[in-house]
Design brief:
Structural class: alpha/beta
Low-confidence stretches: 22-26, 30-35, 326-340
Number of strands: 17
Helix content: 25-40%
Shape: globular
Distance between the termini: 55 Å
Strand order of the largest sheet: 1-2-3-4-5-6-9-10-11-15
């Protein structure tokens, strides 16, 4: 009788993809292989044929939790023939805090099996990406606020003492200590998803120099009644020390992502804000850069200009120029007087004038921003549409200095669109991009 195994491998894989919604982003969860993972696992056990066929996909992306059970599962995988299938390891660390924890409780958050895996990433010879996700959601609310409300910078001694007493601090310290060991010097990409709260004593290791791609993603949240995490001292202090923690060591990275958060944007040096310390000498081999939830500053332009000969792709996602409007107190509300502050036109124009020779792609998203429409702007939009002239607005925003919330100014956005000044700068930069592409095509 004809069966699934009689079909060609290509057709079998297409059927499996269709039936299971299977794609390359699928992750095998070492702690709870249920749902889609269980279905794929069951099919792989149907026969030796299906096991060999599906194993490279089944173990391509694996998830490691900071529990003994999860560590044992991944350690077993590392000792099997399927270790060569692993391309991505996603470590999710969770620590709970309480007033009466002893040393055994604290150390239990990084059990021996997890330490063995994280200290020996070379066990996975084809590992490409390591993701570190420190999840703070399960920390007790009362302890969470006590943990964060300290508004003073720690000394190195205070940091080490805290790491010996607090499970959360100990988990981060042991994790970074493990991955910077010699035997873990293998993966090419590191993704760090973290609450930017307190530093650890293990950062900036020379073992990060092998990385080709680095992504730093900030977690933040609404603390209630409008308060955001970025109103805390530790938020700005952590972000403003990213050079010491990571950036200074990224000498071979070609792809860099720095991501703020909707409830914790970065890029400014004010109350409830944090300046990202990108310096011209950082990431000298940079070819691709993505910034998210970031405020454009003059120091950022200096960084881009320093990489004019290498940077090929720039992506700005949910990024803003600072809204420095003045309230007139009239019926017209907000009016704009600050032509000399950083603007999208100033950013585009200055960057274009530096003639970035390698730049071939620039993306600013989303393309649709909040606008306060009036009759004149509606008329202009209709005119641009009739003339086939593509016009778009670029977002301006500010951060509330008390609560930390991000506020877009719809009238300022509309004003920028109506004057077309920002669009003029954008077209200058696009002209440079087109020229670079044409030059490259002529060399092929």
């Amino acid at each position: 009788m004809p069966c699934l195994a009689d079909l060609s491998q290509e057709l079998v894989l297409q059927i499996v993809h269709f039936l299971m919604g299977f794609d390359e982003s699928y992750e095998w969860n070492s702690c709870d292989p249920s749902g889609e993972a269980q279905a794929i696992t069951s099919l792989s056990r149907a026969s030796t044929y299906f096991y060999k066929l599906l194993s490279p996909f089944l173990f391509r992306h694996i998830v490691l939790h900071n529990t003994q059970k999860s560590g044992n599962s991944v350690q077993y995988l590392a000792e099997s023939s399927q270790r060569t299938s692993v391309k991505t390891l996603y470590f999710k660390g969770v620590a709970t805090e309480s007033e009466d924890q002893d040393n055994d409780d604290i150390n239990s958050h990084f059990p021996s099996s997890v330490e063995t895996v994280m200290s020996n990433l070379a066990l996975f010879p084809n590992l490409e990406t390591l993701t570190l996700h420190f999840d703070l959601e399960k920390v007790q609310e009362g302890y969470f606020m006590e943990f964060l409300e300290d508004q003073e910078e720690e000394t190195e001694q205070q940091t080490r003492e805290a790491e010996a007493k607090q499970a959360w601090r100990s988990l981060q310290k042991q994790t970074f200590e493990a991955i910077t060991s010699m035997n873990s010097n293998k993966c090419r990409e590191l993704v760090v998803k973290i609450w930017p709260l307190k530093s650890t004593s293990v950062f900036g290791s020379k073992q990060m120099k092998q990385l080709e791609s680095f992504s730093f993603e900030i977690y933040a949240r609404d603390e209630g009644a409008g308060w955001r995490t970025n109103d805390l001292f530790c938020f700005s202090h952590y972000v403003e020390n990213l050079d010491h923690y990571f950036l200074d060591a990224l000498t071979n990275v070609t792809r860099l992502t720095i991501s703020g958060h909707e409830d914790g944007s970065v890029g400014l040096r004010e109350t409830c804000e944090a300046l990202v310390p990108l310096k011209p000498e950082h990431v000298p081999k940079l070819r691709e850069l993505e910034m998210r939830w970031y405020f454009i500053q003059e120091t950022f332009v200096d960084f881009l200009k320093a990489h004019s000969a290498t940077l090929e792709r720039l992506t700005l996602s949910n990024c803003f120029c600072i809204d420095q409007s003045e309230f007139t107190g009239t019926a017209n509300g907000w009016k704009i007087f600050h032509e000399d502050v950083p603007s999208w036109y100033g950013f585009f124009h200055t960057y274009a004038a530096s003639k970035p020779s390698a730049l071939r792609h620039v993306t600013v998203v989303p393309e649709t921003v909040a606008l306060e429409l009036d009759d004149e702007l509606v008329r202009l939009q209709k005119y641009w549409e009739d003339q086939g002239k593509g016009r778009r607005a670029f977002p301006y925003a500010a951060v509330d200095h008390k609560y930390g919330m991000l506020i877009q100014n719809e009238e300022r956005n509309a004003w920028g669109l109506q004057r077309e000044r920002d669009m003029e700068g954008w077209e200058e930069l696009m002209a440079v991009v087109r020229a670079n592409k044409e030059k490259l095509a002529g060399q092929v």
